[in-house]
Structures are given as structure tokens and as C-alpha cells.
Design goal:
Elements: H1 5-18, E1 22-24, H2 27-35, E2 39-40, E3 46-48, H3 51-58, E4 64-67, E5 76-79, E6 85-87, E7 93-96, E8 99-102, H4 105-117, E9 123-125, H5 137-148, E10 152-154, H6 160-173, E11 179-184, E12 190-191, H7 193-201, E13 209-212, E14 216-217, H8 225-246, E15 252-257, E16 260-262, E17 269-270, H9 274-290, E18 294-297, H10 307-322, E19 327-329, E20 333-334, E21 339-340, H11 342-360, H12 366-369, H13 371-377, H14 387-396, H15 408-413, H16 419-431, H17 441-459
Parallel strand pairs: 1-12, 6-19, 7-21, 9-10, 10-11, 11-13, 13-15, 14-16, 15-18, 18-19
Antiparallel strand pairs: 1-3, 2-3, 4-5, 7-8, 16-17, 20-21
């Protein structure tokens, strides 16, 4: 008998799905679940999912899948035991040059160009743009990112109509997974009509989706981490069942790493605490238990790129990666996922490089032990000009791009800039550079035309 923590959380979750069940606030999908073996619950739209039904539909979800760029290249394979990949973040605000304001479509273009230049970022997340009508924000965000970056796009979905258009625009670029979507359960044990309709509108097009459980321990889940995890896991399992019924074989990213806790003193949803790292560990463990790729977010409650952001996010990137999470998002994130900062994105990219070097560890080989080299150099000699040093130093040593490694006189001569100031300067320079979107002129023109037509139609609603 498997008595591992993952197995026990799974058992608690399937018990919840059987009693009391989960609310599916979509009549057609509710009816479909009942026809496929679910049992009506005690309240409206509540269904009870038998454990065998859950197991059968879990088995349909691919164990690994690929995310691509606009060319269909730069393939990123996601699997339960793959090395982590990193995404930017969603949000509504921008922190730049010491000021906070609502995020706009021009900011989306600049952020996309920045993320294109950050070597540890694998995908660009959509944002809520203040100057774009909400019904068009998903498709407008997709278009702006596609025009200003070649990297994989994680669309931020807003409406079923926008989600439906995603299936129509996908063939403009190709039949590969050049963008993905996702949505979150609003629990406890509840999938909203909006979430379910977006899943349905995007089904059948080979569009990967992340299935997000986001329990808040002490509010929308039990105050204990495993209790909240069991609720979030039940929500994710129900979301996977729905997606596999709508679209058998649809790639699903298991995401319990959005879970957070409620600060009982300040009434704040905590996203950058040690508990969040533990939820990320839980997400990685459950993903491996189900043999599915997993996800988490690295966040901070800090309002600007400061010491708190550095503390919470550095611990986050290291612990989430060490937990074996497949996909970690949050590059540039501040204010509990409400705000993005270009300077913080540059710093986060450096943190990821730092954490990756730490995780790589050290090799113990004949070449690395270098006994013969030490004999050649001899007692009181220098290794600086030895060929062994030249051959190995670049792979052995972490080379920072932002962190300061200069003497005080050099630092003073360069303006005594703090880390966040240097990062702001670097971000501004990177955002100004043109990028190759990976699209042909025809593809770019067609995607733009379809977007503008949709915006025109939604403006008349």
C-alpha cells in the first residue's frame, strides 16, 4: 500500500470528489459529466465523480508535451521529471522608474521585447491591459506578444468569445503549440461558468491548458497545508476530467503551485512566504504522482524591487526548482502577482541563473580533480595561466550579468547605482531593441487583421 504524502493527498481528494463532489456551473458540461458516469450531488450543478472515472480520464492526459515558439522550433518539453522552465507573469499594474501605474498595451509590447532578451525566460505571459476593452484583452495580448517576441505565449483569457477566436487564429502560424491557456478554480470545490466555457471554447485545437487549483489556506481551504492541498488537488482533478471529456488527449499542466495562505493579522493573501514554497513542493510531488507536468509561481508581497523581493523570490526560485516543478512562472512579478516590473524581471533572470548554477553542483572526475594539473603547477605556483583554467573556468564559474563584482572605486565612478537601478537601466536598453518575431510578413499581417476585426466587433457590443 502506498502511504506516501502524495498518495494520502490523492485519497483525500478523491474522497472529496465522491462526497460532497464539485460544483460545475455549466449546464451542458454538467449534463455531459452525468452522462459519462458522474452522479448528481445534493445541490444545483454539483456532481460526484467516482474514483474510477477520475482515474480513467487522468490516464488520457499526455505524460509529456511540447511548447513551441512562432517557428515551431525552440521546443520546450514538459514532463513530470523535466528540468524547470520559466515564464513571466500576469498582472494589472506596472512598476517602472520608481512609479506605479496601470499596465497598457504599449507596456505589453515592451515587456514582450524584454522577455525575448532574457535567456532564462521560455514563455511570455499575457497581462490585463488598461487601455484595451476586457472582451478583447486575450486576443489583443496574444497579437502584441506575437508581434514583439518569438517565444511561446501563455494567453491570459478573459471571455469565451476571445477564447473561441484563439482556435481560429492558431492555424495562422501553424499546427504546433505556439501558445497555451489556463484557468483557475474558484473554490472550494467549484468551477465557474466562465472557466468551463473557456475550456470548451478552446477544446479540439491542440491548445495546451494549465489546470489551476488556488486554495487559500484558512479561507477557501482548510488552514492546514495538506488540507488546503487536498481541496486544490480535487479541483485540479475535476478540471482534468472536464478537459479530457471535452477534448480527449488534451495536454494539461497540473498546477497546485498557485495555492497560498491567508495572513490572519493583515488579511492579506500571502504569495511569497515559506508556505508557498511548500505548496510548490506539493505541486511537484503530485505532478510526479500522476506523471503529469506541474507548475507553480514565484511571488513576493513587495511593491518594488527591494530587499524583500530579493529575499522572497530568490528563496522561491531555488526551492521551487529543487522541488522538481516543471514550469515556474513569476519572472518580473511584484505585489502578489498584481504588478510586473521590468527591473525585477532582469533581477529574476539573474536569480534563476544563480539557482541553476547552484543546482548543477560540482563534478567529481579525473579532469575536475586535476591532480596532474596541480603537480604541473607545483607548490606555490599559479593556475591562472594554465590551459586547464582556460578550458574550464567558463563552465565552472557563475558569471553574473547584473550583480556587482567591482571594487568600490569602480562602483563610485559608475554612479554608485543600486542593483534595482542597474536592472532598470538594463531593462530599458533591452526593451528598445527590435526583435525577430519568428513570423512571416503574411502571418503577422493576418494575425493583426483578425485581431483588429475582433476588437471592432466587440466595441459594438
Amino acid at each position: 500500500m502506498d502511504d506516501s504524502p502524495a498518495a494520502q493527498i490523492h485519497e483525500a481528494s478523491v474522497a472529496l470528489l465522491e462526497d460532497p463532489g464539485v460544483r460545475i456551473e455549466h449546464q451542458a458540461i454538467y449534463d455531459l459529466l452525468v452522462r459519462r458516469g458522474a452522479r448528481p450531488g445534493n445541490d444545483a450543478f454539483v456532481v460526484r465523480l467516482p474514483r474510477q472515472m477520475v482515474a480513467e480520464h487522468l490516464a488520457l492526459a499526455p505524460k509529456r508535451f511540447t511548447l513551441t515558439d512562432r517557428r515551431g522550433g525552440r521546443q520546450t518539453v514538459l514532463a513530470a521529471r523535466s528540468e524547470p522552465i520559466y515564464w513571466s507573469c500576469p498582472g494589472t499594474g506596472l512598476w517602472r522608474n520608481g512609479m506605479h501605474r496601470p499596465f497598457t498595451s504599449s507596456d505589453m509590447a515592451e515587456v514582450a521585447r524584454l522577455m525575448e532578451r532574457l535567456d532564462n525566460v521560455h514563455a511570455v505571459f499575457g497581462m490585463s491591459m488598461d487601455d484595451v476593452p476586457p472582451p478583447a484583452r486575450d486576443i489583443v495580448g496574444l497579437n502584441i506578444i506575437a508581434q514583439n517576441s518569438s517565444k511561446h505565449i501563455r494567453v491570459l483569457c478573459f471571455t469565451p468569445a476571445g477564447a473561441k477566436l484563439l482556435g481560429e487564429v492558431k492555424p495562422v502560424i501553424g499546427d504546433h503549440a505556439w501558445f497555451s491557456i489556463g484557468f483557475t478554480a474558484h473554490g472550494p470545490l467549484r468551477w465557474t461558468n466562465l472557466a468551463l466555457e473557456i475550456f470548451r471554447a478552446t477544446a479540439g485545437h491542440g491548445i495546451p491548458t494549465s489546470i489551476n487549483g488556488e486554495p487559500m489556506a484558512g479561507v477557501s481551504g482548510p488552514v492546514t497545508l495538506t488540507g488546503a492541498g487536498a481541496v486544490g488537488n480535487a479541483e485540479i482533478l475535476a478540471g482534468i476530467v472536464v478537459n479530457q471529456i471535452l477534448d480527449p488527449g488534451r495536454p494539461c499542466l497540473y498546477n497546485l503551485g498557485l495555492a497560498h495562505v491567508f495572513d490572519m493579522r493583515t488579511a492579506i493573501a500571502v504569495t511569497g512566504g515559506p508556505e508557498n514554497a511548500l505548496f510548490a513542493r506539493m505541486s511537484g510531488e503530485m505532478g510526479r504522482y500522476y506523471d503529469l507536468p506541474s507548475a507553480s509561481w514565484v511571488s513576493t508581497e513587495s511593491m518594488c524591487p527591494d530587499s524583500q523581493a530579493a529575499l522572497e523570490k530568490m528563496v522561491g526560485f531555488q526551492t521551487h526548482a529543487a522541488a522538481g516543478v516543471s514550469c515556474i512562472w513569476g519572472v518580473g512579478q511584484l505585489e502578489s502577482e498584481m504588478t510586473i516590473s521590468p527591473a525585477q524581471a532582469v533581477i529574476d533572470n539573474e536569480m534563476i541563473s544563480f539557482a541553476r548554477r547552484l543546482r548543477r553542483g560540482y563534478a567529481v572526475t579525473e579532469a575536475s580533480l586535476a591532480v596532474d594539473v596541480t603537480r604541473q603547477v607545483g607548490i606555490a605556483g599559479s593556475f591562472l595561466d594554465h590551459e586547464h583554467t582556460l578550458r574550464h573556468f567558463s563552465e565552472e564559474f557563475f558569471e553574473p550579468q547584473v550583480l556587482l563584482r567591482r571594487r568600490r572605486a569602480d562602483w563610485t565612478a559608475r554612479g554608485s547605482m543600486r542593483l534595482d537601478e542597474r536592472a532598470e537601466q538594463i531593462a530599458t536598453e533591452l526593451m528598445a531593441r527590435p526583435v525577430d518575431s519568428g513570423m512571416t510578413e503574411q502571418q503577422a499581417s493576418t494575425l493583426n487583421a483578425m485581431t483588429q476585426e475582433f476588437v471592432r466587433k466587440t466595441a459594438g457590443l
